[in-house]
Amino acid sequence: MRSASVGATSKSRVVVKIPTWRRRVLLIAVLAGFGVLLGRSVYLQSMHKAFLQQKGDARYSRLITLPAHRGKITDRFGEPLAISTPVESIWASPPDVKSTPEQLAKLGTLLKVKPEVIRKKLVNNPREFVYIKRRLPPELAAQVMRLHIPGVFTQREYRRYYPAGEVTAHLVGFTGIDDNGQEGFELHSQAWLSGKAGGRRVIKDRQGRIVEDLEAVKVPQDGRDLTLSIDRKLQYLAYRELAAAVDEHKAKAGSVVVLDAKTGEVLAMANLPSYNPNNPVNMAGRSRNRAVVDVFEPGSTLKPFTAAAALDSGRYKPETLIETSPGAMRIGPATIRDAHPQGLLTVAQVIQKSSNVGSAKMALSLEPHYLWSIFNQVGFGSPTRIGFPGEASGKLRNYKTWRPIEQATMSYGHGINMTLLQLARAYTVFTNDGALLPVSLLKLKEPPVGHQVYTAATANHLKDMMETVIQVGGTAPRAQVLGYRVAGKTGTAHKPGVGGYQANHYVSSFVGLAPASNPRLIIAVMIDDPSAGKYYGGTVAAPVFSKVMAGALRMLAIPQDAPNNNVVIPVDDIPEIKEVV
Description:
By secondary structure, this protein is an alpha+beta fold. It has 2 domains: 63-99 and 122-227, Penicillin-binding protein 2a (Domain 2); 232-278 and 288-573, Beta-lactamase (3-Layer(aba) Sandwich), CATH 3.40.710.10. The protein is 34% helix and 20% strand. It contains 20 helices and 19 strands. The chain has helices spanning 2-12, 20-47, 49-60, 101-111, 115-122, 138-145, 169-172, 184-188, 190-194, 232-248, 290-293, 303-312, 347-353, 356-364, 368-377, 404-410, 420-426, 456-470, 537-540, 542-555, and strands spanning 61-66, 73-74, 80-92, 130-136, 152-161, 198-204, 210-213, 226-227, 253-260, 266-272, 321-323, 328-331, 334-337, 344-346, 435-436, 451-452, 487-497, 500-514, 521-528. The strands form 6 sheets. Strands 2, 3, 4, 5 and 8 form a 5-stranded mixed β-sheet that branches. Strands 10-9-19-18-17 form a 5-stranded antiparallel β-sheet, with helices on both faces. A 3-stranded antiparallel β-sheet has the order 1-6-7. β12 and β13 (334-337) form a beta hairpin. α10 runs antiparallel to α20 (542-555), α13 (347-353) crosses α18 and α14 packs across α16. The radius of gyration is 38 Å and the shape is elongated. It starts with a helix and ends in a 26-residue tail after the last helix.
């Protein structure tokens, strides 16, 4: 019985025999699969390691930038003109943001941004860093973080603040959204002020909390402070008086430059129109530092340099007589005129009465190369190299191309152009015994060495002549300053335009120095296109000089060199002395 059942069982068992080639194919396929996986893993771990590591790190690792503190800009006494204040910027990692419509609505309300705008930045955005809004007050950023939106973070930054606002805007300039300089010294001294940002790499969780530091902190290198030569009090004074004059005379623009007569340092430089560097919008035509980047024809403010060249040539003395009758002279088809025919005038009276004929006759008696050399040495046609972005060099044509009419008109400031800073600098020859000083917008540690242009005797003669300009009978009695002797020169010039000079458009200017006995300050004033009826330099620009100079001398406690009854009162009753332009 047993043998029968065993036999039945053995007969029912099916034995499947796999062909040898199939076993080998299967084995080869399995080994090949393992080989592919092994090769792929070697490839990923060696050839493609950096890419994968970067992607992995991006999920949890963050590089936190530690911004450098931008250096301060101060006036010569350490008063702040530009400082940095901490602010917070809101940013997000779009793939990690998990927010409800209510949270987005609250976020938009806090940031004053439409929720649709925020949603556009976050939805279907593969980037891992986008700004939502920058430069927020820290307390507002704290309110945003209290919404607890995953994937939304804050970042510390700095925002520039300008305490003097529009008063120093053209000098200091401003920075952009990334705290890089855009204008003025913020742009010129970007490398000096900016410093270098630091950073550290950390691991953050999905809530933005730092879990672990991965790398040592790279300490930021703060920017260095910059000290300008400006005196902020004098800057306010110059800006205030310039603004009043531009408004009174309905002028297009205006500039004032105040120089230290002994060092060439710029103590004030004001321009109008101006702008607010704390909110630099609608800046068309307002951002130019006109005293440095705009040129103009200086008119009769150039006559002292012609007269000084004549004296230094040895052909003239202060008392030398020049025939100016009948108040006009023809040079080819052109005619040069004086406003008031005077007859015989001394060189000193040519300056006092601002005689175009007298100035032209002196210039034509000199060799063109000699006159050109004098103008070139006082800095006309060359930039002052003050280090300001966009500084203009002005135009002084080569003497070889001069025609007689050009040599004549150039003697009283037509056919030559320059910046107001160049003109103010040139007057340092009359405050330093004939030596021209370099100018500086940075505070100097010691006075610079000047370049001798005129003899000391000639420079002092011209200073005396320019004192008569301020007295009754001169062109600028409105430039007088109570208790101080003042010397200076007026200028009134037609503005050049297409096809020649424009009949009813003028540039009114005045450059002066005080105290005349020992000059400490030089002030140059330019009013562009006054349109309220008055346009002579002695009427429009000289009063600005008087007010700024009077305030500056008292602020600096400079001793008086004249009695308190030296001013003709009331000055408004003095007849207007005209200049032909």
